[in-house]
Amino acid sequence: MCDQHGLLHGATGRDEWVLDTPAMRAFIGEVRDAIDAHPGDPAAACDAIAPAFEALLGDDHWLPAEYQADAPESGMGGGIGQWLLFRAGDGALSLFSLVVPAEAQTPIHDHLAWGLVGLYRGTQHDEVYERTPDGLRLVEAKPIEPGDLYSLLPPDGDIHRVKTTSATTSVSIHLLTNDTGCTWRHRFELDTGLVLPFRSGYVNAPCADDEAGAPAGATCS
Predict the structure, then answer these.
(1) Structural contact between residues 92 and 126, judged by C-beta atoms closer than 8 angstroms
(2) Pairing of strands 81-87, 16-17
(3) Phi and psi angles of residue 180, each rounded to the nearest 5 degrees, phi first
(4) Is the pTM for the entire model greater than 0.85?
(5) pLDDT digits (tens, 9 = 90+) for 25-56
(6) Contacts of 45 (CB under 8 A, 6+ apart)
(7) Which of 96, 162, 193, 221 counts the highest number of beta carbons within 10 A?
(8) CA-wise closest residue to 33 among 43, 45, 16, 42
(9) Rounded alpha-carbon distances, angstroms, from residue 217 to 3, 22, 182, 187, 197
């Protein structure tokens, strides 16, 4: 695998509230309380966070339109926009929206963190993979509807790709325990078997080492 040391590239020591509203402050407070109440048990923490996360997905008013827009110049490709909403000062928590235009799909990628993902707008098709000695194996393919949410508990479910199946863009909300957009992760190519360094970035927020480039080496084992 790629060297994953020192990956919290967006960490500044101060919480960053890109979307600073009472609803956001209350939600992140509940998330932190749940994590503190279940140290070392991501599954239990996800279960505790799920009701508040589900309420967020069902609220039509908390997410401004600017964070539901595609982004033609984004690092994800295909016009996919990853919009930071909040990240912790230590890089150990982030909340962001992922906007995928109609018919576009993400690369197959991992996250290297546990957390929750839910669909806010549109519909998607989700493919989940696992690594094998011969490459990747498809373990699940499912439709995703607005309000659906699922846990990421690496290694289970951590490698996937999503495609928008609605006629309009899909918007998913990600709550993960790293600074996902600024973390060097992995992109997987089914045809060649290559595992490549991958960092998605954020449309609206920099990473601390944006000038540094990818980790040494073009591929990962």
Answers:
(1) no
(2) antiparallel
(3) -55, -45
(4) yes
(5) 999 999 999 999 999 999 999 999 999 999 99
(6) 34, 35, 37, 38, 114
(7) 96
(8) 45
(9) 10, 44, 18, 14, 9
- Residue length, the chain? 221
Compute the average pLDDT of residues 135-140: 94
d(CA 171, CA 173) in angstroms, rounded, equals 7
Q: How far apart are CA 81 and CA 72, in angstroms?
A: 8
Residues in CB range of 220: below 8 A, 6 or more apart: 1, 2, 186, 195, 196, 197
Residue 52 three-state SS? helix
* Enclosing H/E stretch for 141: strand 135-144
Alpha helices in the chain (DSSP H): 22-37, 42-57
